[in-house]
Structure formats: structure tokens, C-alpha cells
Design a protein that fits this description.
By secondary structure, the protein is an alpha/beta fold. Helix content is 38%, strand content 14%. The protein has one domain: TIM Barrel (Alpha-Beta Barrel).
């Protein structure tokens, strides 16, 4: 049976490959050749085209592809009160020697959500120009902590980290309420750090800097729950978990087993976008913790990291495998991550991207009707 509310049987994580026209305009703006207003004209046009393409392949929820962002999380977080972007000694290091631009965030003052955060206008534009459900994607609150921990927060602003986590939860609560007021009824929090906490190397890094990797899942779950508390009854909140995504590379590995019970039973979201496109994610066994009822898991079986198109039969076989551990009616299908978590994008063509999304829609129709 098809679903009347998100997550939909055929869905997607959010980011999409930037169009050549958008890349050119952003490059010209960075060089000082065009104004912010000129860049906005191109962004608006390309997002309208993107919305039409998503609707055209049969998706029932659309995003703006994160076309106004350079990075999936920096652009949102640096606009919070008390946060500033800084240049770091090195970027985020991915497998295969791939490294992101040297950007980081510092908490220099008290955290809060500003009344006029630009992402609110980004959502309003999306909602105005689509005939289907407008989905907004935001980095989860844990993202402001995980990468640098205590070192990123000014001791003058936050002598104790308990106050930092309190204010972070409150800032995100204001954010969720603001998006709800703007008409958002499908909001996704990109929570990559739960999966990083399943990776032995990431856990060792956290322990070495003084954080307890066994306690952080509960801390991060509490942040999400505070953020989404009191949301409208008709507002669907999903969360997306992956193991890193930059120019087709990744960071972490390890199955969901260490966090599955907490994730499914203590994090008060409605749906989970989980990647299962490679062995790095482990098996479907953690789905046994998914409670019966309204919660849904969107199976990320289609890779966004290469243009190789998965066969329909293979996807159906894997959906059947997953249904051994969770009710088929609680499952959906999507790519395992976004196609362009940063403006550089993954290593595949736009044609391959759309072919994958089209296949997801077709398989969902054949499996669920």
C-alpha cells in the first residue's frame, strides 16, 4: 500500500547534484563578478527547474537540492547566534585521502536561533513552487558538537558543557517551531554521528579527546527530542544516518547494532533514513528493534556514490530480506545518502542521478502498489 504521508515509499535524502549554471554563478559570485542578487536569480531559476525534475520522476516529496548551500551543515549552523565559521588547519578527512575544504565552526557566544534565519526563506520558496510535499533538511544538533567537541566551544561562553547542550537543544527547539510556523510539515534532521559512534576508530578518537562514546548517544538523543518536542501533530520529523559523504568517499563503518535500540525506541522521530548500500552498514538485523506502529525506516539501498544503476530485482530481494526483521508496511526505499552533500557533488552524472531516482519510484510502485 502506498503512503499518504511522508516518508513516502519512494523518497530521497535531500541534496542533489548542482547544475552547471548554478556552479558557474557561484564561481562568479565568489570571484566578485556578480552580486548576491544576481546569484539569487540563478538559484531561484535552477531550483524551480529542480523541483519540476523531481516531480517529473514521480517523487511525492521534493527538496531544493540544497542548491543554496556550499556544505550540508556549515551554512545552517554558522547562521545560529553564537556560531562563527573559521578556517581550520585541515579539512574533514575521508577514506582514500580525500579531504574537504578547510572549514570549521566555533561557538564564541551564547547559542540561539535567530528570528530571521535565511533557511526559513529557503523553505518558503520551495513550498511556494511545488505541487507536492516540500521537505526541509537541516543538520542535527549533534553536528555542532561531534567534530571538535569541547575545543570548539569558548570557555567564556560555556564554562560547562551541560549548559552548552541545554542551549543547543533550546536553539533547535526554536528552529523547529519556526519552520512549523512557516508551514513545514516534513522536516529531516541529518544525524550522521549516531553511525560514527558505531565505528571503532571514531570511538577511539572521541575517547582520546575526553568524550565518552558510550554516553554520547543518549546526549544526542536528548538533543533531538528537545528540538522536536511540541511540534504540530501533522508535522513529520525524520532523521538521516550515514557514514560520511564527500565526493563519493566516506568516513565511518560498522553496523547499527550498538545504537539501534536507543535510536528506534528513544528518539522521538517518525522515520529513519538508513544507508545499506554496502557491507560497511552491516546487516538488517538491527531492524528487529523497530517498534510496531507508525515509525518507518527508509532503506537506503541505492548508492549515491557511483553512477552504476542497481537492478530492480536486486533491490526487491534486499527489501524482502529487510522485511524479515521489520514489517514491510513500515519500510520505504531511497538512495543511501544525498547526491551532493557539498557543492562539489559525488562522482556521477546528473543523468545517472535521475535514473536512480526513477528506478526507486518504479520499484516502490511494484513492491507496495
Amino acid at each position: 500500500m502506498q503512503r499518504t504521508q511522508p516518508p513516502f515509499r519512494a523518497d530521497h535524502v535531500g541534496s542533489l547534484l548542482r547544475s552547471p549554471a548554478l556552479k558557474e554563478a557561484r564561481s562568479q559570485h565568489a570571484a566578485g563578478a556578480i552580486s548576491v542578487a544576481d546569484l539569487r536569480v540563478t538559484e531561484d531559476r535552477e531550483i524551480r527547474n529542480l523541483i519540476a525534475s523531481q516531480e517529473g520522476v514521480g517523487l511525492r516529496s521534493v527538496t531544493d537540492g540544497e542548491f543554496r548551500r556550499s556544505f550540508w551543515h556549515f551554512d545552517f549552523l554558522e547562521q545560529l547566534c553564537g556560531v562563527e565559521r573559521v578556517e581550520t588547519a585541515h579539512g574533514i578527512r575521508f577514506q582514500g585521502g580525500v579531504e574537504s575544504p578547510r572549514k570549521g565552526l566555533r561557538i564564541s557566544g551564547k547559542l540561539d536561533f535567530p528570528e530571521h534565519h535565511p533557511f526559513l526563506d529557503h523553505f518558503r520558496f520551495l513550498r511556494q513552487h511545488t505541487k507536492v510535499v516540500a521537505k526541509m533538511t537541516l543538520p542535527s544538533p549533534s553536528v555542532l558538537h561531534f567534530r571538535a567537541g569541547r575545543a570548539a566551544a569558548s570557555t567564556e561562553a560555556y564554562p560547562e558543557m551541560e549548559e552548552f547542550f541545554h542551549d543547543l537543544g533550546e536553539a533547535y527547539h526554536k528552529a523547529v517551531q519556526a519552520f512549523a510556523k512557516a508551514g513545514c510539515r516534513y522536516l529531516q534532521l541529518d544525524e550522521v554521528n549516531f553511525t560514527y559512534l558505531c565505528d571503532k576508530d571514531q570511538r577511539a578518537m572521541l575517547a582520546a579527546r575526553g568524550d565518552d562514546p558510550d554516553k554520547l548517544p543518549e546526549t544526542y538523543a536528548a538533543l533531538i527530542n528537545r528540538a522536536i518536542a511540541g511540534r504540530p501533530d501533522d508535522m513529520v520529523i525524520s532523521t538521516h544516518l550515514c557514514r560520511g559523504n564527500f565526493q563519493s568517499s566516506w568516513i565511518a563503518q560498522g553496523g547499527y547494532e550498538p545504537v539501534a535500540d536507543l535510536l528506534f525506541n528513544c528518539v522521538n522521530v517518525d522515520g529513519y533514513f538508513l544507508e545499506w548500500d554496502t557491507d560497511r552498514a552491516g546487516g538488517f538485523e538491527p531492524l528487529r528493534f523497530l517498534p510496531k506502529g507508525k515509525k518507518s525506516v527508509v532503506l537506503g539501498l541505492v548508492t549515491s556514490k557511483s553512477g552504476l544503476l542497481e537492478s530492480k530485482d536486486d533491490l526487491k530481494r534486499r527489501i524482502e530480506e529487510a522485511s524479515k526483521y521489520a514489517d514491510l508496511d513500515q519500510l520505504c526505499l531511497s538512495p543511501q545518502c544525498g547526491f551532493a552533500s557539498t557543492e562539489e557533488g559525488n562522482i556521477l552524472t546528473e543523468e545517472a542521478q535521475w535514473a536512480k531516482l526513477r528506478t526507486i519510484v518504479q520499484v516502490a510502485g511494484e513492491v507496495w502498489g
